[in-house]
TrEMBL record, chain A:
SUPFAM superfamilies documented for this protein: Cytochrome c oxidase subunit I-like, Cytochrome c oxidase subunit III-like
Pathway assigned in UniProt: Energy metabolism; oxidative phosphorylation
InterPro entries tied to this protein: Cyt_c_oxase-like_su1_dom (IPR023616), Cyt_c_oxase-like_su1_sf (IPR036927), Cyt_C_Oxase_1 (IPR000883), Cyt_c_Oxase_su1_BS (IPR023615), Cyt_c_oxidase-like_su3 (IPR000298), Cyt_c_oxidase_su1_bac (IPR014241), Cyt_c_oxidase_su3-like_sf (IPR035973), Cyt_c_oxidase_su3_a-hlx (IPR013833)
PANTHER family: CYTOCHROME BO(3) UBIQUINOL OXIDASE SUBUNIT 1, CYTOCHROME C OXIDASE SUBUNIT 1
PROSITE patterns for this protein: COX1, COX1_CUB, COX3
An example Gene Ontology biological process: oxidative phosphorylation
Domain Heme-copper oxidase subunit III family profile per the UniProt entry, residue ranges: 573-835
Protein name as annotated: cytochrome-c oxidase
Pfam families, A to Z: COX1 (PF00115)
Domain Cytochrome oxidase subunit I profile: 17-531
Annotated keywords: Cell membrane, Copper, Electron transport, Heme, Iron, Membrane, Metal-binding, Respiratory chain, Translocase, Transmembrane, Transmembrane helix, Transport
Family, similarity comment: Belongs to the heme-copper respiratory oxidase family.
UniProtKB/TrEMBL annotation, chain B:
Segments traversing the membrane: 20-41, 61-81, 104-130
Keywords from the named record: Membrane, Transmembrane, Transmembrane helix
Protein name: Uncharacterized protein
Keyword Transmembrane helix included in the entry's annotation: yes
Length: 837, 134, 288
């Protein structure tokens, strides 16, 4: 290949992947841009939440302090927890993964770049909305856990609770979108030859954490829906006077809340799993053990939620199960640490600032893990629960398990992203300040907690043994903040003055380090086939071959953004995927949907509805123009004589996987609502409640039966439509879709008519409220299905959906399977359950 | 789908042991919660504390569920053992070959089976150490 | 028992932490030949998997075994406590069936297993006497049970451990553990009506409507919204465990409760003439 050709290729790649100049820069969707914005924004929220913590500590420095009044203090600690968890800990995982994952996979981008951009704008809008409220003295003040009835009572909590619920629900949706994208990225966008047993460990973690998000966030979204319905419409899900139960919220919140801890912990540990082999100069020992530990933690973390509820008076045997799972989860966690220790012992360690932070994180995290084992024992927890002991414990686990590894990762990966390293000298200073400050701040809290200081108090009396411990903690907090400040200055100012970093400056073995630093907009020069876990160590010729464009996709002749799609287990090339380019549409959609959420918080229901509909239309336009684009040719030579199709549909396409994975999350939210129904059944002696004539309340049988029959028919029509399309009959497809839409609407209508005609009043009792929520949820899914079928119909009429190009109908039918299942389960639960009692 | 014995390891076989654990966990929790919530007298009823509801069928049900779960995990482990090629040779399974991919999945599944086995026993313990619904 | 458990866990935890730190230090400072892959893998198996499993299993069995003992039934005295924003409504049911209502102070006989029945009126609170044992949440719509067996006499402090609104930090109570004989004497005194049912303060107390919310047995004041005040002066603290109990403080509390306790339901009575509130405070301060 001549130098001239190579330069032309690079010029074309650069042009295709470039971000636009000027104000249009903000239309960029490339993972490098979005990842940087995302990371910077999450870091900004970290600093913001940190400042809140400093105010909290300043107030607690001395007893009976009056620096911050009670109401403001409650906003401070609520927002501190909320922002740290929802606006920093989870988003920073998504941000870093969006930034790094494609480089590790030698992919040009993630499979749905516009979805990443949409997620980012949702995150920014929601985050600013929630955090900004404190400047108007309107921030949520009921704790980040928002326990009702304190927070459902509009007399006790103001607009802050609505801001919390709606702002965060909006962000959660974005988090789920990011999780879907990252899972599909790991499964389908690996370079050829990177089989499942040779993926970088970071990818394993991303895969597992993405899966955890799909199962952890939806219960909270379901809880948010119930909560907001109680606040706005007075449906009594959490009101014991009308058959509700405040504990239901605690269940739903912690089913989310505990896995959440591991969702933020695992990705940071994943950074260590990339770093330790680099600095030990050898492959990791116990790769399979890490996979075991990550999967094991992922599963076990869903069996811990009640340990946040050990003092709510549940039977001891129930506590026992969760106590046991809480102990068991320590096993895989310990395994991960020992894998790192073993790798260090079997290699020759090179010490560096990243490893310094890693060592600090080990010291802190082990301490937090050990206190975690202690509080997992219920009798001890009864003493420590909701005291400063737990504050100390959770900061030790999150500080050591998440924050310090993240700073280690920052020192390790900043050269990859910015092309320049952070300062070693200032890095050490920052480390020691942070490490000392952290321990000075949080170690004494163990003792304040054991001396009986409860959490979330804005003041405390003098002379009961808490004074000097609190003062020491406050000093430590400011010391820690000084360390963070040094890091921040170095990151935003110091780094500009440094010399460019050489390629692969840490002598690592994984693909993200293959090219020059910083990588150009298009990422990797050509996509290599790999045959090792550490290709840079085992395939010494690889960097040169990649740089010379000798591997796949070295060019962008057609001026389209392209990346490789491979098979799940063995990464055999399947498709050359054309990903959409820069656009303002994701931002516009995020703004519209965000505005409708924000409007709802302020009770502007009709304008919110109108804006929400506009947002859905905007999403339709985005889909219409940017997805399932029919290529100009069937296949393409991607180099080395390999021809790959440009268009694939069904289970081989990334869109099908995204739909499949999204629907898992959707089903989890639905399962949480069903859980709510059966939860009410267990706590009530008579459920459903009896009517005046002694018969059980319920939606009756006739209309649910009508709904069931039309539901089945609608599903059948959809299947028939797909079948007709495969037989190349556009007329059959269109007729099938029309029938499916009509029957879907009929079924959804019957679902809503059933409780209406039976006179179920959702305000009167938790039972009718739950029935309404379940049926409403199912009807909404059918309505969404109707919209999708209408979309397919329009695509068919515009000849964008044909026998050969049938992504849309496959994905819509896949959605239809899940929506039908949702409807069927809902009807069975709501209509048949009253018969059993 | 997951439980069927297969010749080829994949992500589903990998997830089988922890899925069994999760199902067993949920089962134990539901059995005990329903028993104690429906038994009438419980910790939360002001009955002077003399009569805590009995666990009734909880113990036999948990015992049976645990036996089934352990059996399934052992079956999964046996299948994983075959996938590893009947031994731990050729660790660390890092070659980019179908054989090593198969062995890696088998080996990781085996480790997960061990963890799930221990965890299932952990979860079953409370049913035998706690006497009633107090 | 829980204390012993804690010390055992603490020592074991410290040993584990030190061992891991030494191992990490050794790994990063070591100059001689690296370990073989085989011995490193063995470290993961034994150090990372087998040993923790055994330790955790032992701890779990011990912890589970402890739970039924700690939740054993009480042996006589029963105390109903209802959490309110931001104080405690307390009602004793004595073994002989008599009952006694008070507020913001718990007195217990030493060496007996006293049983608390915990409820909440408005939002979730949590009842915790750190020196005597674990805590238990007070949840609207539910009744939780907690049994405490104090082993030594003395004065302690109890707190609300679950965030319950603006003045969560100001929701405490005083606790006194007494010898059983002293406890019986206290009960007898407490069952009696107010010591000085008449006087200027008493009259003003009625005239200004305080009795609509507060009960002072022996007078016409029988309100049930706020804390019972019959033997207010005999309590160790004022305002739910946050202030010293003397007439001057009572006066300030009456006038500025909205400042002292943000979010409390009682309004501040600063609009009353200072002499009136002082008289009421003086009277309340005489109710032993």
């Amino acid at each position: 290949m001549s130098d001239e050709l190579r330069a032309q290729q690079e010029e074309r790649l650069g042009r295709v992947w470039a971000s636009p100049p000027g104000w249009r820069y903000w239309s960029a969707v490339n993972n490098t841009e979005v990842g940087r914005w995302y990371t910077a924004t999450a870091f900004a929220f970290f600093l913001f939440a940190g400042v809140l913590a400093l105010l909290v500590r300043a107030q607690l420095a001395v007893p009976e302090n009056d620096l911050v009044p009670a109401g403001r203090y409650n906003q401070l600690f609520t927002l501190h927890g909320t922002a740290m968890m929802f606006l920093f800990a989870v988003p920073i995982f998504e941000a870093v993964a969006i930034l790094l994952l494609p480089t590790m996979l030698a992919a040009r981008d993630l499979p749905f770049p516009r979805l990443s951009a949409f997620g980012y704008w949702c995150f920014l809008i929601g985050g600013v909305f929630v955090c900004g409220s404190i400047f108007f003295n309107a921030a949520p003040d009921g704790g980040w856990f928002m326990y009702p009835p304190l927070t459902t009572n509009p007399k006790l909590t103001g607009i802050g609770a609505d801001i919390w619920l709606l702002g965060l629900s909006f962000i959660e949706v974005a988090s789920i979108a990011a999780a879907v994208e990252l899972i599909v990225g790991v499964l389908k966008c690996r370079p050829p030859g990177m089989r499942i047993n040779t993926m970088p460990l970071y990818c394993w973690y991303v895969l597992i954490v993405g899966g955890m998000i799909l199962f952890a966030f939806p219960p909270l979204i379901a809880g948010d829906i119930l909560f907001e319905l109680q606040r706005l419409a007075d449906w009594p899900f959490f009101d014991p006077a009308r058959g509700g139960d405040p504990l239901l919220w605690q269940h739903l919140f912690w089913i989310f809340g505990h896995p959440e801890v591991y969702i933020v912990f695992l990705p940071s540990i994943a950074l260590l799993a990339m770093m330790v082999p680099s600095f030990a100069r050898r492959p990791i020992i116990g790769y399979s053990w890490i996979v075991l530990a990550a999967i094991g933690t992922g599963f076990l973390s869903f069996g811990l939620w009640v340990h946040h509820m050990f003092t709510t008076g549940l039977p001891a045997i129930s506590l026992g199960f969760f106590s046991a799972a809480s102990e068991a989860v320590a096993i895989p966690t310990g395994v991960q640490l020992f894998v790192f220790l073993a790798t260090m012992l079997a290699g020759r360690m090179v010490m560096s600032v990243p490893m310094l932070f890693a060592a600090g994180s080990l010291a802190i995290f082990v301490c937090g893990g050990l206190t975690g084992v202690m509080v997992a024992i219920a009798p001890f927890d009864w003493q420590a629960h909701d005291s400063y002991f737990v504050v100390a414990h959770l900061h030790y686990t999150l500080g050591g398990g998440m924050l310090f590894p993240l700073f280690a990762g920052a020192y390790y990966y900043v050269p990859l992203v910015l092309g320049r390293p952070l300062s070693d000298r200032w890095g050490k200073r920052a480390f020691w300040l942070m490490f000392a400050g952290f321990n000075i701040a949080f170690l004494p809290m163990h003792f304040t907690g054991l001396r009986g200081m409860p959490r979330r108090v804005f003041t405390y009396p003098a002379g009961i043994g808490w004074d000097w411990l609190n003062l020491v903690s406050t000093c430590g907090a400011f010391l820690f903040a000084a360390g963070v400040l040094i890091f921040t200055i170095d990151l935003f100012i110091g780094v500009r003055r440094r010399a460019a970093a050489p390629a692969n400056l840490w002598k690592s073995g994984t693909l993200e380090w293959v090219g020059p630093l910083p990588a150009p907009d298009y990422g990797i020069r050509s996509v290599p086939a790999v045959s090792s876990r550490y290709p840079l160590w085992d395939q010494p010729e690889l960097p040169r071959e990649v740089a010379e464009g000798r591997w796949y996709l070295p060019d962008a002749q057609e001026g389209k953004r392209e990346t490789l799609v491979t098979s799940v287990l063995d990464a055999e090339p399947e498709q050359c995927l054309r990903v959409p380019g820069n656009s303002f549409l994701p931002m516009l959609c995020a703004v519209l949907i965000g505005a409708s959420f924000i409007g709802t918080a302020f009770h502007y229901y009709w304008s919110s509805l109108a804006i929400g509909v506009a947002g859905i239309l905007a999403i339709m336009v985005w889909l219409w123009r940017g997805t399932a684009v029919i290529p100009d040719a069937d296949d393409k030579d991607i180099g080395r004589g390999l021809r790959l199709p440009l268009y694939v549909s069904g289970p081989r396409s990334v869109g099908w996987w995204a739909m499949f994975i999204t629907m898992f999350g959707d089903m989890t939210a639905f399962a949480s609502l069903v859980f709510g129904f059966f939860y009410f059944w267990t706590i009530h002696e008579v459920f459903p409640p009896r009517l005046a004539d002694g018969s059980p309340m319920g939606p009756g049988l006739l209309w649910p039966a009508v709904a069931a029959v039309t539901l089945a028919a609608s599903w059948g029509a959809m299947l028939w439509a797909r079948e007709r399309n495969a037989a190349d009959s556009p007329l059959g497809l269109r007729l099938g879709l029309l029938a499916g839409m009509a029957l879907g609407l009929a079924s959804g209508g019957a679902m809503l008519w059933a409780p209406w005609q039976a006179g179920l009043d959702p305000v009167s009792h938790a039972y009718p409220a739950t029935v309404w929520v379940l049926l409403g949820w199912a009807a909404l899914h059918l309505l969404l299905g109707v919209l999708m079928q209408a979309y397919c119909l329009a695509r068919s009429l515009a000849s964008k959906l044909t026998r050969a190009y049938d992504i849309d109908i496959h994905n819509v039918v896949l959605y239809g399977h899940f929506a039908t299942l949702t409807g069927a389960v809902t009807l069975a639960v709501t209509a048949l359950f009253p018969l059993l009692s | 789908m997951v439980l069927r014995l297969r010749d080829r390891a994949d992500l589903w076989t990998l997830l089988m042991p922890p899925t069994v654990w999760a199902t067993h966990f949920l089962y134990c929790y539901v059995v005990a919660a329903v028993q104690c919530a429906k038994a009438g007298i419980s910790l939360t009823a002001p009955e002077g504390g003399q009569a805590f509801a009995a666990l009734g069928m909880v113990r036999p049900l948990v015992a049976a569920g645990t036996a089934v779960a352990l059996l399934l995990i052992v079956i999964g482990a046996r299948q994983a053992w075959r996938h590893t090629g009947g031994g731990f040779h050729d660790l660390p399974h890092d070659a980019a070959t179908p054989e090593d991919r198969q062995r890696f999945l088998g080996y990781a599944t085996l480790l997960l089976s061990a963890l799930s086995f221990v965890s299932v026993i952990f979860i079953a313990l409370p049913a035998f150490l706690i006497r009633d619904c107090r | 028992m829980v204390a012993r458990l804690f010390w055992v866990m603490l020592v074991a935890g410290a040993v584990i932490w030190l061992a891991m730190m030494l191992l990490a230090l050794h790994a990063s400072r070591r100059r001689q030949a690296p370990w073989s892959d085989r011995s490193a893998a063995r470290l993961i198996l034994w150090g990372g998997a087998v040993t923790p499993t055994l330790i955790l299993a032992a701890l779990l069995v011990f912890g589970l075994g402890l739970m039924p003992t700690l939740r054993a039934p009480g042996d006589g005295l029963r105390i109903e406590v209802q959490g309110e924003q931001f104080w405690w409504r307390i009602r004793y049911t004595l073994p002989d069936g008599r009952s006694l209502t008070t507020a913001n102070e718990v007195r217990l006989p030493r060496g007996q297993r006293s049983e608390f029945l915990l409820t909440a009126q408005d939002v979730i609170h949590s009842f915790w006497i750190p020196a005597l044992g674990g805590k238990m949440d007070m949840i609207p719509g539910a009744t939780n049970r907690l049994v405490l067996e104090p082993e030594r006499t003395g004065q302690f402090r109890g707190v609300c451990a679950e965030f319950c609104g603006s003045s969560h930090a100001l929701m405490a109570f005083s606790v006194e553990v007494m010898e059983p004989a002293d406890f019986d004497a206290w009960v007898a005194a407490e069952l009696a009506p107010a010591a000085t049912p008449r006087g200027e303060g008493a009259a003003l107390f009625m005239a200004r409507g305080c009795g609509a919310c507060h009960t002072v047995r022996g007078t016409a004041a029988a309100g049930r919204i706020g804390p019972e005040l019959t033997h207010l002066a005999g309590r160790h603290s004022l305002g739910a465990g946050i202030l010293p109990n003397d007439a001057a403080t009572i006066d300030r509390f009456i006038r500025e409760v909205n400042v002292i306790k943000p979010g409390a339901r009682m309004p501040g009575f600063a609009m009353l003439p200072a002499a009136e509130t002082a008289a009421i405070a003086a009277w309340l301060g005489s109710l032993r």
